[in-house]
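Entry 0007
Protein: Exocyst subunit Exo70 family protein
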Amino acid sequence: MEPPGNDVVAFESAEKIILRWDSTASEDAREKMIFAGDRYEIERYLQAVDEIQRSMEFATLSDDQNKANSAIQIAMARLEDEFRNILIAHTTPMEAESLTDSSPLPEEDYEDDSPLTKDLEHQESNSTCSYRSTNSIREIDLMPSDAIYDLRCIAERMILAGYLRECIQVYGSVRKSAVDSSFRKLGIEKLSIGDIQRLEWEILETKIRRWIRAAKVCVRILFASEKKLCEQIFEGLGTATDDACFMETIKGPAIQLFNFAEAISISRRSPEKLFKILDLHDALSDLLVDIEVVFDSKSSESIRVQAVEILSRLAEAARGILSEFENAVLREPSKVPVPGGTIHPLTRYVMNYISLISDYKQTMSELIVSKPSTGSRYSSDPNTPDMDFAELESHTPLALHLIWIAVILQFNLEGKSKCYRDTSLAHIFMMNNVHYIVQKIKGSPELREMVGDDCLRKLTGKFRQAATNYQRSTWVNVLHCLRDEGLHVKGSFSSGVSKSALRERFKTFNAMFEEVHRTQSTWLIPDTQLREELRISVSEKLIPAYRSFLGRFRSHIESGRHPENYIKYSGEDIETAVLDFFEGYQVSQHIRRRSE
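Output (structure tokens):
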């Protein structure tokens, strides 16, 4: 049974329009694009396609079916070209201001010195792009509404004719090129996980800063806007067609983006990587809600899962690095004494490190949920210090780790102090280093809060005890020279003082003090206040004792021959000489005397 006559006329008229735009048969059709012309011609062509598709339902004879099939194939080839042309015509590089994430960024993210970043910051205030905001997501209109309408008209007919795969492939290839272009603007390189892991860490640090900034833009702006465009064109045209086109466009770029963070998460662990890993963790954690919104379909589940797994691996890497850092501090092997007993480089490094950890208190507190695995009140390992965690039950696990690091640092320093041949210098070394630990804790409000006043008092007591130990080991013997014992002669008609013993006592004091002065002027106490406090403490014991001894026995020496050989220094000379102590440089071999 043939279709009614009007239908035959309509089919032939539609077929004529289709054939007129067959680019394989007409030079004119090859040079012109239907959708670049006037609206009337566009509507005529779309109606012709609709008519061919409708007539296929009624065609019963094989000739009619063949003619309809031939016409629809020509029409679909044409529409595919038109679809591609519209996409290309309206796929322009995303404006610089559109690639700027408006959410707050860590201060160091602004250190990115790429030309794009500087351009973004310059142009951001002039942005006039149209977008709707959902929390931190900004969906920018990537194409004008008339182009979207035309694309949707074409897509609807291609899908109805069974050309869904072709439609998706054309769309994905064009839009992926646009995404790749935006990636290049953002400084996102095509690097494999192996390529990333082979880069020097200094280079990676810069790339991590850039990646954090770029990832926020990609998820919240670029990917979200691509998803919106897919919905505008394909939503309702078949089952999850919009999602299929979205994944065709961004799956490769999304994998490329997240592979960078994955490579960092599984790279070799070392202490210097901790803080950039924490930056990555914070950035990805902050993006996770947006990732779940943008990639909310079943087909994009793999991207959501990848992001969650990377976040987990970054957390595990941070925990592992902290544990390895603790072990490295405990086992740090250097045994060469630092000159002058000053602050050891290890002390500076470790305290600066844990101060930085305290700056990441919120993140680290979430990641560190168990106390240190080593250190016990009942530890029998002589190479591990004792620590009673029961006394610190009120502290968080992170605080316990930081306290433990301070404990093992002191333990290591005590071992290094034994390398000094001079016991007094060993005490100066411990005083300097524990004092530095205390000052670093006091200087960081976050660190001080976590460590607590009790621990701080114990540390303060330790460096004060080291100062006391120094004074005992240095000055007990010197002050012993200024005692009266052994100078008096019993049963004699003389003055009762042995001049020979007194002369010997003055000579011994002079020699001992000159040696202390020569040696300890080269020792260094870098903290001005601590240096002055120790000098005052020494002076308060030494100067009165010397002046008193001099006052009691000066006349006995001056009444004899060559008194200047024995009374070499006044009380003021000794007081001035003490000011040379702990300056860290060699002074004159001779003590300055005011009489000179």
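Curator remark: Residues 201-234 form the longest helix (34 residues). The CA atoms of residues 89 and 147 lie 9 Å apart.
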